[in-house]
């Protein structure tokens, strides 16, 4: 057994759905279909049988890629073709993936909403007809049809409405992801830290890391846990202490409500100027409107720090005002922590 501690949270691969913490409906649905798939294959053979296709939909950072790779491992497939919607808009790339796939291949298309209408149509045809019509201009002779293997297809998307109805409806297994509870995230952080052999002072360290992750494993692991470990190692410690955790979040400028500096600037602008249309708020913060609507606002709206009226003007809530009032400037905290370390 390897007793060497890992150095990166992404070096650990989840190979079983039973290892997935949270998303019980997603896990139960996939496990049901896997049991049925293996039972049918054992009694009637694998001829003409494929798993799925599967669509995983939900907010960014909620574990869709992790689940897709766990399904691939559970199936025992030997080849994983991992790509994304924008890449497969290149017809040659998409054709190559489809033609070269065999019965032991999983094709995983992340950010599938990035596929254009042509790519979606080609994929739909491949899934429904199990063959690929090749136009004459591609063969440079005449059109013909290439039969396709019974490979596994998994799509992941944050915006399912951008996929054509026909393609969405062709997905046999439909899994919708939600944000995670703090308890589930705590266990996810514990599982990853233990797998990496990263020691921690107490469960409180794990809870702090989980509570400041906006309900997503990606932030809990890739940003919070990784930074806490870096802080511990910067002090030549092998154990993540509470002091390390607090120092890490001071550097990250993430407060106890998971808000970062940009989130707080957004709230401060609304507190100062009152109800504002998106365009005006964007100008006040010197940020593109899309950055606000896609990066900043989802969490603030979900947690009730901000509301939108009938005209879509933004307004801070009492909860938002109280948070801004009670939260000290974290930039000063970073400086104070640095002074304490020096002392």
Describe the structure.
With 343 residues, this protein is of the alpha/beta class. It has three domains: 23-176, Rossmann fold; 182-258, Helicase, Ruva Protein, domain 3 (Orthogonal Bundle), CATH 1.10.8.60; 261-326, Winged helix-like DNA-binding domain superfamily/Winged helix DNA-binding domain (Arc Repressor Mutant, subunit A, Orthogonal Bundle), CATH 1.10.10.10. Helix content is 51%, strand content 13%. It has helices spanning 24-44, 64-75, 91-100, 117-129, 136-139, 165-170, 182-196, 203-211, 217-234, 242-252, 261-273, 278-285, 289-302, 318-326, 330-342; strands spanning 54-57, 79-84, 105-110, 131-134, 144-147, 152-157, 173-176, 199-200, 239-240, 306-308, 314-316. Helix 7 crosses helix 8, helix 8 packs across helix 9 and helix 9 crosses helix 10. It is globular, with a radius of gyration of 24 Å. The model has no long low-confidence stretch (mean pLDDT 89).
DSSP strand count: 11
Large-scale geometry: globular
Strand residue percentage:
5-15%
N-to-C order of helices and strands: HEHEHEHEHEEHEHEHHEHHHHEEHH
CATH topology of the largest domain: Rossmann fold
Mind telling me the C-alpha Rg?
24 Å
Class by alpha and beta content: alpha/beta
């Amino acid at each position: 057994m390897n007793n060497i501690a890992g150095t990166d949270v992404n070096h650990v691969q989840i190979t079983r759905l039973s290892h997935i913490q949270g998303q019980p409906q997603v896990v139960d649905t996939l496990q049901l279909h896997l049991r049925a798939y293996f039972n049918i294959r054992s009694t009637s053979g694998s001829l003409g049988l494929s798993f799925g296709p599967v669509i995983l939909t939900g907010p960014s950072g909620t574990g869709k890629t992790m689940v897709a790779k766990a399904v691939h491992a559970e199936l025992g497939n030997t080849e994983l073709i991992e790509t994304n919607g924008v890449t497969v808009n290149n017809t040659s790339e998409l054709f190559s993936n489809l033609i070269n796939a065999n019965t032991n291949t999983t094709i995983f298309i992340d950010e599938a909403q990035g596929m254009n209408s042509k790519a979606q149509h080609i994929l739909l045809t491949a899934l429904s007809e199990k063959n690929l019509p090749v136009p004459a201009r591609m063969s440079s002779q005449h059109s013909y049809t290439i039969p396709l293997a019974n490979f596994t297809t998994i799509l992941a998307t944050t915006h399912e409405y951008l996929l054509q109805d026909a393609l969405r409806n062709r997905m046999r297994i439909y899994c919708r992801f939600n944000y995670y509870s703090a308890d589930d995230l705590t266990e996810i952080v514990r599982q990853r830290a233990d797998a990496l052999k990263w020691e921690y002072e107490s469960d409180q360290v794990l809870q702090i890391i989980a509570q400041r992750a906006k309900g997503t494993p990606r932030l809990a692991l890739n940003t919070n846990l990784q930074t806490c470990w870096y802080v511990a190692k910067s002090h030549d410690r092998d154990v993540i202490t509470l002091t390390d955790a607090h120092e890490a979040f001071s550097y990250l400028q993430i407060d106890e409500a998971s808000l970062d500096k940009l989130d707080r600037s957004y709230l401060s602008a609304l507190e100062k100027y009152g109800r504002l249309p998106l365009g005006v708020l964007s100008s006040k913060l010197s940020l593109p409107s899309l950055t606000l609507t896609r990066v900043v606002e989802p969490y603030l709206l979900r947690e009730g720090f901000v509301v939108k009226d009938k005209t879509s003007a933004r307004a801070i809530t009492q909860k938002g005002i109280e948070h801004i009032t009670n939260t000290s400037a974290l930039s000063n905290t970073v400086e104070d922590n640095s002074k304490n370390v020096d002392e």
